[in-house]
Structures are given as C-alpha cells and as structure tokens.
Amino acid sequence: MHRLLPERLLAFTALAAGASLLISLSVGSTPIAAGDILKYLFHDDGGIADRIVDQLRLPRTLSAFAIGGILALAGALMQVLLRNPLGDPYVLGVSGGASSAVLAGMLLGLPVLWLTPLAFAGALLSMLIVFSLARSDSDHSSARLLLTGVVMAAGWSALISLTLSLSPPMQLPGMLFWLMGDLSDALSPYPQLLVLGLGLGAALWLAPQLNLALYGLEQASVLGVEPRRLRMQLYFLASLLTAAAVAVAGAIGFVGLITPHIVRLLGASDQRQLLPASVLLGGALLTLADTLARTLISPMQLPVGVLTAVIGVPVFLALLRREKRL
User: Fold this and answer.
1) Which terminus of the chain is more exposed, N or C, with fewer CB under 10 A?
2) What CATH architecture is 6-26+57-324?
3) If phi over 0 gives left and psi between -120 and 50 gives alpha, with beta otherwise, what is residue 272?
4) Is the peptide bond before 299 cis (omega within 30 degrees of 0)?
5) What is the pTM of this model?
C-alpha cells in the first residue's frame, strides 16, 4: 500500500470522510442529487426531499460517522496498550462486557438513561479483568493479552446467550437486532459527537506519551512516563469510548481493528497523525457500511454489524497470518 506524507494522510482521510457523508445523504429509497445536499442542509424549503435529508438521513449519517470514529479511536488506544495491531474492543471482549451490561439493564426494565453508565461499567470491568489476568512481571505480553481477550469475549457471549434465553418473547427481536449492531434508533448524533470530540482531544493530549509507550511501558518510564497512570488513563478512556458506541449501536465489530491498521499502512507512525486520521477513516468506513445496510435490500434493513463483520473477519485473519510471518 502506498505510504503518504502526514499532511497528505490527513487530507486523504478528511476527503474520504466528506465523500462518505455526501454519499450517505444522497443514497436511499429516494435518491437526492449530491449538488442539492448543501441546499437542503442550509435552506429549509419545506419539501419532501428537504425533510428526508434534515430529519431522517442527517441524524443517522452523523451518528454512524461519530460511532465509527469512536470505535476507531478506542481501537487505536488499545493497540498502544497491546503494542500489537490486533487490539480492538470487539476482539478483546470489551464490547461484549458493555453489551452484556446493557442487555441486563434491558431485561430488568431499567430506564434508557441507565444504559450508557451500565455499558461503561461493563466495558471497564472487562478491560480490567483482561489486562490484570494477562499481565506479566515486567509488562503486558501481547500474545497473552490477545488470548485472554478472546476467552473473555467467549465468556461474555455465553452470558449474552443466557440473558437472551431469559428475555420475554416481545423484547427478544429488538434485543437481537440491537446486539448485531444497529443504527436505526440513533435519533440524535450530538452526544456521540461530543464524546468523540472530547475523546480525541484527550487522546491527542496523551499522544506524546503514547508514542513512547509503543516501545514498552518500562522503556517509556525511563523517559518520564508514569506507566501505571498512563495505563489507567487508557483503560478509562477506551472503556468510555466503547460504552458510548455500544449503548447506542450495539456491538459493532472490527472497525477499531481495521482502521488504525490501514492508517499505519498508509504511513502514519506518530500518534498525533494516526489518531485523527483513524477517527476520520473509521467514521467514513462505518458511514459507508451503514449506507449499504439500509439500502442493500431496501425497504428492509440489515444490521450494520453484520456488514462490518463480513469485511472484518477476513482482514483479521490476514493480520493474524501477517503476524505469524513476522
């Protein structure tokens, strides 16, 4: 893959993000010319096309972009912790922990406002378990972390199956569709956009330390980084990001795995470029996947998590094969 200069990389990912947003707003059961999109966004003429863009497509498009960016950012941060490009909230069971907590809340009939705190608690618990069990005497072993995360994901999957088996039949279809990754209920994108902005700002503030942590937390400590503090900051931030995505869209896998790896293949090594580029490209990928999910067999909709898995599984296997060769 052709490697790009840092400034060109950010320009390329920004262009990809803009193109994905335009495609999502234009494509649907009622096609709308790309040239008319800006007119409908900034001028309300009261027509059907204007309402379709402003009230239906724009909230979902921005939600897809925000959640894709959130997942990509969480994946990039977890890959620093692992020092391995195979790190991802879905693969390591963090998404499973958040999903299990949210499903338990749904089963108990808790108010919607409780879902995000529950997702955060489940994600943080899962991450702490994985990293505490996989810790070696000196640092975190990448292979042990990955294996522990896969086992934890399997455990959460079993708990999710138990929760579904105990769920009332009337709730079951909605819970299953949400669990596969669904953006049809993403009515307001602004909370997710706020989380994305704050999360990216915090990650960029940590970027100089993250660059040092790539060589190992012990080596980074010699250069002034506090390993325990940085690790806890990354635990908290990655868990919060994962929870914000899962609470709205369910368990959407592999976006956090694929996106940072693609950005690295394009030439990013400095976290100050890799993090914003991953956010832009992750948002673009999920926006395009959601556009396919709602139009591929229209008027029916597919869970967007199914499409990301169809793409992510072969890419994940290719990464495993590449790791074996190294």
Assistant:
1) C
2) Orthogonal Bundle (1.10)
3) alpha
4) yes
5) 0.89
